[in-house]
């Protein structure tokens, strides 16, 4: 499999996943208090939205690279 075809598969998969899920969530640890032996950590959940146009653009670009002859 050539590099162009592999890139096409990756872009197509990312585009479809972006359209299906619309975003992703990750957990960020934040140090709030650190006094002597006491250490408190807060876990914040952050959500990142993926715009529809970005998912469509990735899927189309991946499809074009896969359909390209060469």
Helix and strand arrangement:
Blueprint lengths: L2 H19 L1 E13 L2 E12 L2 H16 L3
Antiparallel strand pairs: 1-2
Helix pairs in contact: 1-2
Task: Explain what the structure shows.
The protein is an alpha+beta fold. It has one domain. Helices cover 50% and strands 36% of the residues. It has helices spanning 3-21, 52-67, and strands spanning 23-35, 38-49. A two-stranded antiparallel ribbon has the order 1-2. Helix 1 packs antiparallel against helix 2 (52-67). The chain is elongated. It starts with a helix and ends with a helix. The mean pLDDT is 88.
Portion in helices = 40-55%
Strand order of the largest sheet: 1-2
- Helix count equals 2
Identify the overall geometry.
Answer: elongated
Largest pleated sheet:
2 strands, antiparallel
Q: Distance N terminus to C terminus?
A: 12 Å
Q: Would you tell me the overall average pLDDT?
A: 88
Low-confidence stretches: none
SSE-based structural type: alpha+beta
Radius of gyration: 20 Å
Strand segment count = 2
- Order of helix and strand elements from N to C terminus: HEEH
Please indicate the count of domains. Answer: 1
Strand content: 35-45%
